[in-house]
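Priority: medium. Attachment 1 of 2:
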């Protein structure tokens, strides 16, 4: 598979003790393609950052598909997200040989153990709790429909919490937001703190009982953007057992906004030095960001990051973990 092909092309020694746990897979924890297309078949081929065909050119691939709507009108946001969810479900129904939406542990295990080179595994995430309004029963309905990751907010405060780009409407997580976190964890929906304000972050860290993730955020000590995580926050996520997805947005990679592969590696190195490689994954933000780092044109280039890590003499196992296994293992526990 792809990572192993990269290994052998670099003439590194192969892992001598590969167990069944050592499947080779890419996992990307954030992508906005659903809000950029209008027809299910566009998921498989398009001219944007991400399509299933190019994702699968890396090897086995699991993509978190984000439901996303921009604007201040909550009803409009909800309508957009529901339309995107319907499109993902229709894609799976119409093209079962090309896409599998993963809803549970068994489906995840089947997907990773039975290599199907032309099928993308997908998880449904929502970027902003606007989709549930102020209703826990809506959260439950969406879980039934396939929702497995809840990014509590985007760039506005909402009924659940304050955003990193918001006005501190609640001073962190609202009373309703606390109920949402608790119910989501009971259901098996993973809480995602990317876009949350610092106060929201620490409120979640305090009340959550399960691992939580930052699906697409980098290190604030390297790039001072408020969307990035402080060292303390990185440690909190690791303590919870969660994973951090490295975001390829140049503005989140360095303070100049012009980024390349080296900048991506610097964030990986930093998290690695703070808490270890087992808490690092990718949340590339394809089709949610306007520009990409030099050398990366889309999902087909994720292998270049892997190659760069191998050239730096990262251990094979650590590189496989970062490429996908850290998130896969977390999902195996959480779904
Ligand atoms: Zn985002």
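Attachment 2 of 2:
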């Amino acid at each position: 598979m792809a990572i192993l092909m990269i290994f052998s092309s670099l003439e590194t020694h192969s892992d001598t003790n590969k167990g069944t746990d050592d499947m080779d897979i890419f996992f990307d924890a954030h992508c906005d393609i659903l809000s950029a297309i209008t027809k299910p078949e566009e998921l498989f081929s398009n001219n944007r950052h991400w399509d299933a065909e190019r994702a699968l050119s890396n090897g086995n691939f699991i993509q978190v598909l984000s439901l996303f709507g921009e604007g201040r009108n909550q009803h409009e946001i909800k309508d957009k997200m529901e339309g995107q969810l319907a499109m993902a479900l229709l894609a799976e129904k119409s093209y079962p040989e090309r896409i599998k939406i993963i809803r549970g542990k068994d489906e995840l295990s089947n997907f990773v153990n039975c290599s199907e080179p032309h099928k993308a595994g997908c998880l449904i995430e929502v970027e902003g709790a606007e989709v549930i309004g102020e209703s826990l029963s809506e959260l439950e309905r969406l879980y039934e429909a396939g929702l497995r990751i809840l990014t509590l907010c985007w760039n506005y405060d909402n009924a659940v919490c304050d955003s990193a780009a918001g006005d501190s409407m609640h001073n962190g997580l609202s009373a309703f937001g606390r109920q949402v976190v608790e119910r989501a964890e009971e259901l098996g929906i993973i809480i995602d703190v990317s876009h949350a304000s610092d106060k929201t972050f620490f409120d979640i860290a305090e009340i959550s009982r399960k691992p939580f993730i930052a699906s697409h955020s980098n290190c604030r000590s390297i790039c001072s953007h408020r969307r990035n995580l402080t060292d303390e926050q990185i440690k909190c996520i690791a303590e919870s057992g969660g994973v951090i997805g490295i975001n390829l947005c140049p503005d989140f990679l360095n303070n100049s906004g012009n980024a390349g592969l080296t900048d991506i590696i610097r964030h990986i190195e930093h998290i690695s030095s703070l808490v270890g490689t087992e808490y690092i994954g990718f949340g590339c933000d394809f089709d949610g960001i306007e520009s990409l780092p030099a050398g990366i044109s889309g999902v087909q280039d994720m292998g270049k990051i892997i190659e760069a890590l191998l050239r730096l003499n990262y251990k094979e196992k650590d590189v496989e973990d970062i490429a996908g296994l850290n998130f896969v293992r977390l999902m195996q526990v959480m779904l």
